[in-house]
Each structure stands twice: as C-alpha cells, then as structure tokens.
Specification:
With about 220 residues, the chain is an alpha/beta fold. Helix 7 (about 115-125) links the parallel strand 2 (about 105-110) and strand 3. The protein has helices at about 20-40, 40-55, 60-65, 70-80, 85, 95-100, 115-125, 145-155, 170-180, 205-215; strands at about 5-10, 105-110, 130-135, 165, 180-185, 200.
C-alpha cells in the first residue's frame, strides 16, 4: 500500500490555457514595465525581456540581478488584469477530475501568488488545493532552478518521492526528476524527454493515467 501521493500542479498552460489572452497581456505588461523603468524603447524593452527570460527562466530574475528591481512592485504591475475572467480559457470538467484525485494537492507556479489565487478562484477550484505556492514563496527562485523546489519541499515538509509534478514545460520536470519526483508532461509537445514518466495531451487525461502513476 503506497502512502498518499502529493500532486504539484503548475498553473499556466497546465490547469488552464494562458496562451490566447493571458500570456500576451503579461508579456505586453512586462515590456511596458522595462520601457518605463529602464527608459528603453519598446523594441529594446521587448528584446531585453526575452533575453532575461531565456537566460534566467524569468524576466524578473534578470531585472533583480542587473537593475535592483523590487520584485513585489514588478509582479503587481505586470500581473494587473481589469477583466481576468474574460481572458480565462479552461475546462469546467476539471473540478470533478481534481476532486477525485487521492492524496494532497498543491499549486506550484512561477507566477505571483495573488494572480494564481485569482485564476483558481475564477475556475472554481481554489478550495481543492491545500496551498498555492507562488514565486514570492520560493524567495523569487523560479523553476527550473533547484532552489525553488528545495524551498517548497522543506517549507511544506514534503517527501519528493511521494510527489507527482505536472507541467507544460519539460525543462521544469527535469529538476523534479532529479529530486526523485514522478513527472507528468501536459500538452501537445511532440518531444517527450526520458525524464518524463507520463505524457498527457490534456490535464483531463490524468484520471486515465492514475494506474501508471500510482502503481
């Protein structure tokens, strides 16, 4: 008999589809923030945003490291939505699926906590999670860097061998695998690296994969 699993769900593009409306809005907001605070042209700001994102896994890390940006201010300004509910794309069947999962459920996101809470609330699934871990809870060490994972495991006293991590980003699962977690890649990516245990086209397919993950 296995003890209860611990599910670690990524948020954006794992539990809901952020690509059509939310990601473009955040990207525009981040570019505008760099434009304003670093006195750059829009083109320069956009280039720098992408450079930091590729180099550090998060634009914020580059800004903190090279410009002393206040992370709290940046996250509030770049995750401001007038009509978030109108931008959400998700599946209503998700609640029923999540409720039936055995074990404990957490959200583990590189996004700020206030945004993650708002998204989960709109989806009507916030109450199904024991806790929501945002970038500020990881001392601003985003996935896939190992420090954020270690902070999560130690602060919530989680055993990584009990954890199942679900992500749309394969590189974030590589770190999870190194720590001894089981890994689930969500999405229609063609490549499935060796460190991915289970590949799902949609998070709703998780029910059918339980035997493989918990066996």
């Amino acid at each position: 008999m296995h003890s209860d699993p611990v599910w670690l769900f990524d948020l954006d593009n794992t539990l809901h589809n952020a690509s059509p409306h939310i990601f473009p809005h955040i990207n525009r907001s981040m570019t505008a923030y760099l434009e304003q605070h670093l006195a750059l042209s829009r083109e320069e700001a956009n280039t720098l945003r992408m450079q930091y994102w590729h180099r550090y896994g998060a634009t914020l890390l580059g800004l903190m490291r090279h410009h002393g940006t206040d992370p709290r201010h940046f996250l509030v300004e770049t995750h401001r939505f007038e009509r978030l509910h109108e931008m959400m794309v998700f599946d209503r069947a998700l609640r029923g699926m999540l409720r039936k999962l055995p074990g404990r459920r957490f959200v583990f996101s590189n996004a700020p906590r206030h945004y993650a809470l708002a998204v989960l609330d709109i989806m009507g699934i916030l109450d199904l999670f024991e806790d929501v871990i945002g970038i500020e809870d990881l001392d601003y060490h985003p996935k896939p860097g190992i420090r954020g994972y270690r902070k999560l495991l130690s602060s919530r006293r989680l055993n990584p061998t009990r954890c199942i991590m679900l992500e749309d980003s394969a590189v974030n699962l590589r770190t999870a695998k190194r720590l001894g977690m089981r890994t689930v890649l969500v999405g229609r990516n063609l490549r499935t690296p060796a460190y991915v245990d289970v590949k799902l086209a949609s998070i709703l397919d998780l029910r059918r994969a339980l035997g493989r993950l918990l066996g």
